[in-house]
Amino acid sequence: MIRTRNLSKSYSTGRGKVQAISDVSLFVDTGMTLTVMGKSGSGKTTLLNCIGGIERPDTGSVECFGVDIHALSNRDLSLFQRRNAGFVFQAGNLLSYLTVSENIAFPLVLNAIPNKEKDRRVLELLEKIELSDAARAMPNELSGGEAQRVAFARAIAHCPKMLLADEPTASLDTETGKNLVGLMFALGKEEKCTIIISTHDQEIIKLSYKSLDIRDGKVKGPENE
Amino acid sequence: MPFTFWIKTAGLFLVRSRRSTTVLILMVFSAVATLIFLASLAIGINDAMIRNSVSLFSGHISGFNLPSTISRKSLFTDGVSNVLMRIPTQGILSHSGNLAMVTLIAVDPVEEKKSSAIWKKILQGRYLEPGKKEIFLSKPVAEQLNIEPGDNIGFSPDPDLPPVELAVAGIYNTGMYQLDRGIAFCQISAVPAKAAEWNAAIFLNDGADKDLILAGYHKAYLKDSLFKTWSDLMPDLKQLIDLNYISMSIVMVLVFGVVSLGIACAFSIFILKNLREYGIMKAMGVTPSETLLLIFSEVILLNLAALFIGIIGGIAAVSVFQRTGIDLSAYTSHNQYFIVSGVVFPRLTTYSVWLAPCLALVFSIFSAIWPAVLVIRKNTSQILRSI
Ligand SMILES: Nc1ncnc2c1ncn2[C@@H]1O[C@H](COP(=O)(O)OP(=O)(O)OP(=O)(O)O)[C@@H](O)[C@H]1O
Ligand SMILES: [Mg+2]
Predict the structure, then answer these.
(1) What predicted TM-score, i.e. pTM, was given to this entire model?
(2) What is the DSSP letter of A39?
(3) CB contact under 8 A, B12 and A109
(4) Interface pTM (ipTM) of the complex?
(5) Relative to the CA of A38, which ligand 1 atom is closest?
(6) Do B277 and B290 form a contact (C-beta atoms < 8 A)?
(7) Mean pLDDT, range A162-185, rounded to an integer
(8) B112-115: long-range contacts (C-beta < 8 A, 24 or more apart)?
(9) A9 CA distance to ligand 2 centroid (A)?
(10) CATH code of the region A2-220
């Protein structure tokens, strides 16, 4: 279960103070999916970053599976993320000096998964994302869609409780994007992962269990508690 | 989290960013190899000054007024290559009315030729030959007596005795006051031995510890005699050599300071170019200390590779010139510390091999601190947004 309470974050920029998100409270039950939609600049990235602990909010709290993550120290937050979170960003997710399988194995090594188990899991995921033949490829040898599939496989490799994907399909064509999100939702369900995806693609919203609308940093959808 | 995983990852980062790794390695390599060579050259110059100064006449250790109970043989201890026996006699040289007060030093010409170099400073004639009643004297003395090689002159150690007749074998000039004024040489049996005391010029093997050998002599002969090393007898040379070491070290630190600015920039770019990688890792839950471990592993691995080939390169360059020597005669001909030969042989020592690599490692690690701190302080959202 992921719950945010009165989450606000502002930035001081060249344009003055920008309220990226304000007073966002939301709730996603364990194993469920949520899509966050809104136009560019509405605060989607900021919201996901705050939920995943990549960014600290100014006020408000984020509770992930019973842990108030912004009450944790930086180090403990890192350890929490390594165990419980998986991220997929818009593009350029992969560590460019590691091969596809080394990328997928990375969170497994971080979580001290034994070698044998790790190798098995990497093979399994490569099969699921249909890239078994690309195990030793370098990221710059992949197409955009393939790279996003690898990023997704890496994000769920260690069976995290939550998967956060910030416009994972933005750099892909509609068809490829839809396939990727379909895969994410299907595998997410299989792995009992709670998924939050931000997007502005209507097709993707239809695939999701529930969605919410964000405008100028404020949540408009029915999920706002 | 296994330490080895980070080292391995650092290795992969380096190997797979081939071009920048190569450029950085070349930079560190050339700096290190050059400085190893320069340090070895400085050592070689010091060696040459010592070699020139001691080999001309005095040896590494000089023994004064040794009683005849101390034999030449007994001074051959570990590390001693030769001991030259010299018996001084005061007296007057005379030639057709001209007189000169000298210390006539009786030597063994064969042994002298093996170790000392005064016979190389001949102007006219030749050096002493064993068994002949000859004299070898300096240019000032020859001028005073107005003689040439082949002339016969008289030497009287005692005004009451008739002079001993000696043929002039050769005339030398060292340019050093102590060796050119009031000194002449003959071979041991040419004049009747008068003095019961002798002087020793003790020559050591390369790398032998003069102070250790001196301590041995002092322990054995303290009461009877006086031994001194070249550094006691030539404090000016000693200071010059110390000065050379110090200025070389300062130059190395300064050169490295400047070079390291370049290296520091390169390292910063090298680290910051991978900013995105570190940002992504951070999002995956890599802690700041692990990030630091990774960055410093990269820097240290890269340095070890560069230092390794740098040391090999430096040693290779030194060994080439160690064999052939570098002829600096054109710059040393008027210098009393290069009196015998201006050829310098660079030499590797612990100091010359390790100073540059140690400096390189320290400077590189220091230069990685700023970018590393920048990486761990920048938060992931900023990193991801900025690229
Ligand atoms: N680090 C930052 N510094 C300054 N301003 C920021 C920063 N991050 C976000 N903002 C501002 O906050 C607002 C929300 O940004 P955010 O990136 O969350 O929007 P978004 O919905 O993800 O947009 P997009 O769809 O274009 O990715 C924007 O006005 C943006 O300019
Ligand atoms: Mg965004």
Answers:
(1) 0.79
(2) -
(3) no
(4) 0.92
(5) 21
(6) no
(7) 87
(8) B112/B84, B114/B82, B115/B55, B115/B59, B115/B81, B115/B82, B115/B84, B115/B201, B115/B203
(9) 14
(10) 3.40.50.300
